[in-house]
Amino acid sequence: MINSSNICIMIAIIVYLILMLFIGMQCSKKNKNTDDFYLGGRKLGPFVTAMSAEASDMSSWLLMGLPGVAYICGLAEASWTAIGLALGTYVNWLIVSKRIRRYSYVCGNSTTIPAFFSNRFRDKSNILSVIAALVIIVFFVPYTASGFAACGKLFSSLFGVDYVGAMIVCAAVIIGYTTLGGFLAASTTDFIQSIIMTIALISVLVFGITKAGGMDNIAANVGNIPGYLKFTSTFDPGSGSAVPYSGLTILSTLAWGLGYFGMPHILLRFMAARDTRELTLSRRIATGWVVISLAVAIFIGVVGLGMTKAGAMPELADSETIIVQIAGLISRHGVLAALLAGVILAGILAATMSTADSQLLAAASSVSQNIIKECLFKNLSEKAIMIIARLSVVAISVIAIFLALDPESSVFGIVSFAWAGFGAAFGPAILLMLFWKRMNKWGALAGMISGGAMVFLWKYCISGLSPMLNIYELLPAFVVSVIFIVAVSLLTPAPSKEITDEFEKVNAMKDR
Question: In the CATH scheme, what is the code of domain 4-27+48-508?
Fold first, then answer.
C-alpha cells in the first residue's frame, strides 16, 4: 500500500542508496592498482578504520537478531553473547591490530590474508594461500548471499514489492560501489553506515521508552516474567517459565568473541591503517561504539516487550522485526517522523550492506589475487589484474544472488556457522603466527584444516551425542586448531633463519 509515510521512507532509502553509489564512483578515481583496490593503499584514518571494521562486523544481526533474542528470552543469552563480542573486539584491537599491520607490511607488503600466510612462511608452493582462499570462498559466498537476501526481505515486507526484484536491486548497488571503489569504497561507505546504524538505534530506543510509558512502566511490565531479567536463567516462551543458563552455556556463548581473531574483513582493516600509532585511537573508538551499540540493541528488545505489554505495540510474530515495527509506528507522526523512520530502516539496510560489501571483496580477492594471479597466471599486467579483480567481484556476486533467490531458503543459518568457520580456521593460526617464532608452514596448514574440519564435525556429528556437547562449535574447534598448530610445528623442522629474523625485526619495530 502506497501512502505518504511509505513515500517518505522510500525517499530516505533511495537517497541513501544513491549516496553509496556516489562514494563508489569517487573512490574509483583513487584506485591505481590492485594494492589500492584490495587494501586502499594502507591509507585509512583512525575513525574510518575503527567504524568500518565494526560496521562490517555487526551486520543486520545488531539491529535485528540481538534485539529479537532479548525480546523473546530476556537478558541472559543476548547479554552473554554481547559480552563475548565486546571482549573479543577489545582484545583483537589490543593485541592483533598493530602487530598484523606491521607484520603484513614487512612481510612482502601482503594485501590479503591468504597472501600474508604465504609470505609469512615463504611458501613458494602457495599451498597456504590457496587453502586460505578456499576457506574464505566457502564461508563468505553464502554469507554474502544472506546479506543480499536480508535486503530483499526488508523491502518486500515493507512495501509489498517482489522479493527477487528488491534483492537484485540492493545487490546491484552493493556490487556497483564495491566494483568501482574496491576496499576504499567499502570502508568509506561502512563508516557512513555505522553513523546511520547509530542514529537508528538511538531513535528507536528513545521513541520506544516514550511509547512504553517510561522506564518505571517497562520495569513493571517485564519484571515479573520468570527469568527474563536474570543473567543465570532465561525465559522460555513455550513453557512460560525460567530455564537455567548454565556455566557451560555461558562459556559457549562467550566463545563468540574468539571469532574476531580470524575474521578476514576485520583483519584487513587493521592491515589498511595508515599509521600504527593511530590504531590506539581506533581501538578506543571501536570498543566504545561496540559496547554502547550492543547494550542499546539489547535494551531495545526489553523496551519492545514493555511496549507490547503496555499495549503500544502488538505482539510480534517475528521478534527480529522489532525495529521495523517501531519504525512503522514512528512514521505515523508526520512527514519528518516518516523521514526519520526511513533513516532507521536505512540503518538496517546499512548494517546488512556494510557486511556484504566487505565479504564480497574478501571472497573476490581470494579468487583473483590468490588463485588466478598467484597460481595460474603470474605474468599478468597491472591493467589485466584490475580487470580480473572487478570481474571477480561481479562473478562472486552472481553466485551469491543465485543462492539468495529463494526467500524461504535457510541461507541465514550459515551466519553463525561461517563465524565459527573463520574463527577456528584462521583465529589460532593468526594469533600464533603473529606471536610464536617457532610456528612453521606445516603448523599453519594443520591449524587451518583441523579448525575448519572440526567446525563441521562438531556441528553435524558430535554436538547431538549429548546435551553436554551441545555447545557452540567455535569453542572446541578453536582448541583443536591450537593443539594441531603447536604439535605439528614442534614435530616438523623449525622455520628458516630468514623467517625468524623477520619475526625479530617485527618484534623490535616501534609505531610507525
Answer: 1.20.1730.10
